[in-house]
Every structure is written in C-alpha cells, then in structure tokens.
Amino acid sequence: MATALRILDQDGPDALTFQRLGKELSASATAVYRHFASRDHIMVAVAEELDRLSLDGYEPHESWTESLRDLAIRAWNTALDHPAAAALCMGRVTRGVHELRAVDAVLEAFHRGGWRGRAAVLHYQAFSNFALAMASNNAWRLVNQRFGAEVNWVQEYQPANPATYPYAEAAKEHLRSLDMTDVFHRQMDILLAALQAEAAALPRD
User: Which ranges of 56-116 would DSSP assign to H, the alpha helix?
Assistant: First the structure.
C-alpha cells in the first residue's frame, strides 16, 4: 500500500491504475489483478492503510473527550498527509482490522462518557461521520488546489451593492483568509462541548 499511496500523493486521484501500480512494483498489471479483483478493491485496501496510519501510536486518554479529539485529529492529519487517498477513500467501510480498531476506540470513549447500547452506537456513527467528513472534504479542497481543478474554495464575494449584505461585508477579510485547520479545531470544540453537556445528564452505572 505504500506504493499506492505514493502514486496518489504524487499524481492525484486518477493516477492509481493497475498499469501504474504494476509499473511501480516492477510487475505486470495482470500480476496486480491476482491480488486485487478491481480498482475498488485497491481503494478499500488504501482506506484500511489510512486507518492504520491514523491509529499508529494511539492510546486512550484519561479524558474520554480527549480520546475523541485525538482520534479526530489523527484522521485530519492523515488526510493532510495523503489528501488524494483521503479524498477517494476516507470513510469507506473496509471491514479490516484497523477499521475495527478505530470503531472500538470511538465506542470505548463513548462508553466511558456514559452511553450504552444503541445510544452509544448512534453517537459513535455521528461522531465518526462528522470527523471523517471534515477530513475528506478538506482533502478534496487540497487535491483540487494542487491538481488544477477550476473550483474556487475561497469565500470571496464582490456583490454590486455590498450594503445589501452588511454582515458578510464586515466579515469579508476573515472569510477570505480562513484556515481550515482552525475551522476543524473549532468544530471539534463545539461538538465535544455539546457531548460533555449531554453526558453530564446521563444516568451512571
């Protein structure tokens, strides 16, 4: 998977083909087909590798909210390191051991927060979807910027009459210069504060 990641890192989402992977591995495309039945199977393996990288060295924190924050930051940073792979694969269901480790780690955090049964699973899925969506959306932004897609990711507006939109006009410099990592951390602050407030009202074992 290191070779597949390198191809994606260097040349973007469309570069990973059986022919290219075989060439990089000094093997034929047919040899690659013996390991992966389709490109989709390669994508699942890449997704599992992203999970492995994200969880490397992870240990639960004393605080369950800090465990959740750490897991989200790890996914975010992995997507920053490998944006093309994250844009394509982050959030894919792999059913692999590293995905299972991630599922278990998030469920452990919610268990320690006081959630049980179906409620714990709902919170796990909501949190995971939120964190992975933030990371993969930012990965798409980075990929589009690097590989020349004509997509404007900067919120910069030039209305004919700025007075019609006074709040956007007052905030235009901040909108234009937003750092998405700052946005990510603020989103996590908001989410974790809401979870802490909800947890405080839960019955305890």
Answer: 64-81, 83-89, 97-113
Q: Is the pTM of this model over 0.85?
A: yes
Q: Is 26 exposed, middle or buried (0-12, 13-18, 19+ CB in 10 A)?
A: exposed
CA distance 196 to 176: 32
Domain ranges for the chain, please list them.
Answer: 2-200
3-state secondary structure of 192: helix
Give me the pLDDT at residue 146, please.
Answer: 83
Measured in degrees and rounded to the nearest 5, phi and psi for residue 125 equal: -65, -40
CATH superfamily of 2-200: Tetracycline Repressor, domain 2 (1.10.357.10)
Residues sharing a CB contact under 8 Å with residue 187, sequence separation 6 or more, in sequence order: 130, 134
Going by C-alpha positions, the residue among 52, 49, 43 that lies closest to residue 16 is 43
Name the nearest CA neighbour of 121 among 108, 137, 138.
108
| Averaged pLDDT, 118-129 | 98
